[in-house]
Structures are given as C-alpha cells and as structure tokens.
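Continuing the batch. This is chain 6 of the set; chains 1 through 5 are on the previous pages. Same settings as before, nothing changed between runs. Recording input and output for traceability.
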Amino acid sequence: MSAESPSTLLGGILRPGPTREGDSLAATGRAGRNLPAAITTGVVLVVIVAVPLFFYRPAFVAVVMLIALAAIWELGGAFARMGVTLAVPALYVGTIGILTCSWVLGPEALLFALFLTVFACIAWRLADPSASSRINDVVSSIFAAVYIPFLASFFVLTLKEHENPWILALFVLLIVGNDTGGWAAGILFGRHPMAPRLSPKKSWEGFAGSVIACIVIGVAGVHLLGGNAAWGLLLGLVGAAVGTVGDLTESLIKREAGIKDMSSLLPGHGGVLDRVDALLMAAPVLYLITSFALDGRS
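Output for chain 6:
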C-alpha cells in the first residue's frame, strides 16, 4: 500500500475524518489493556513531560501545546462520527494563541485569546458553504475551545505564577492516584456501578478508593510544599471528584461517538485525550486551591 500523499495527510489533520477503531493490542489483565505496552508508553510520556518541566519550562509549554493540538485532532474525529464538523483549523490556531498568551501575558490575555478563538470558530463555520448543520458545528467547536486549550492553560498559568514544577507534579500525582486508587478498589471491591451507561467499569467502591488515594497524596504533597494539611485534604477531595467527572465527560463523548478510545496514538493507552481528560477538568480547581494553599511558599 502506498504512503499517503502530503496533501492527503494535511487534509486529514485540518479536517479529521470519523475516528476509526483500530485493532487493539491483546489485553494482559482485568484492566482490559496491554500492560507491557501501557507501561512502556507511560514511561516515555513521563520523560517527555518531566524533563522540560524541571529543566526548561518554555519547552514544557510547547509539550502542553502539542498535547492540546493532538487532543483537538482526536476530538474532531470523534465529533465527525456524530455528523458534526469542528472548526479544527481555527481551534489549532486558537490553541497556540491561548497557551502562548497564558505563558507570556497571563490570565487577562488568555481570556481575550479565548474570545478570539470562539469568534474564529463561528466565522469559520459561517464562511463554509458546505456546512449543513452550522449551529451544531459552532456550539461543538466552542465546547472544544473551552474543553481543551482553555482548561490546559491552567497548567501553564500555575507554572508561570508559582515557578515551582513540583506543584504541577502534585497535580499529575493526584490524577494518577485517582485512576490507580479507583482501579484497585474497583477490581477488589467494585459491586455498585457508578455510571453504567457511560463507564460500566466505574463503581462507587472504586470512587471511594480514588478519594482515599487523592487525600493521601494531597495532604502529603501540600505538607511537603510548605502548606497546611487542611488544604491538602481539600485538594484531594476536589481532585478525586472533579477528576472522576473529567473521566465521565470523555466517556460520554466516546459513548455518543460509538468508540472505545479517542485514537490509537498511545499504544496501550488509546488516545492522548484518554490520558489527560481528568487532568484537564481538574486543572482550574487545582490551580485555584494551590493559589491559596501555597501563596508565597513557592
């Protein structure tokens, strides 16, 4: 089979077609994933994110930007399966603008960049004579602008304002704890489904495991960063609750689109958005809590 031409590849990037379910790697455990592939991919991701985060922060902003752009592409493919066309080119440019403004200029410029992105999404769809469902496309594009680049900008703002990479590391550990605690408790004790129509494997027992893991990580992390343990308790509770809502939000999108994973970009994990959904949803509230909990201590 011949390789795709540059024009075809560019077209697939600027106007993603409906996501196609690829052949999944053979599962090696009850989690339904290929654990060797998942672990290998996870290690690579940690290196790609952690090295620039701790050694060259502008490069970390670039990594966040690339992750957000990949997530926009995945979301475009998922919505295409539902007959909705996102204003992907406008979203790409808006993502770069929102995250750049967050890093260089701060929150006020970020909000103006979000407004410009929304305006560009509306203008893009109005100018497309082939669009048959413009209002659905516009509303979905605005949702994408808020869901991905706007929420992702809070990681950039946190690093800009605190200049302490360990705060962002705490964010990631909280969400890892949310996933791991929920998975372990769900496997061992899960009996009562939490949202069976969206995510059959999630249980209330698993959510309790998520809360416990996040509280332990939150209290320990805030204490080590010089804050009051009570803030760590709040951080853990909110991290578990909002992170779980983030997981279920993406599950809702995938259920509506009829797909298991957003893409196959990350072997053993699925898509980029499959890995950062909870992080995105939790970022604003974690940013707000740490702004109070660690004010002047970072």
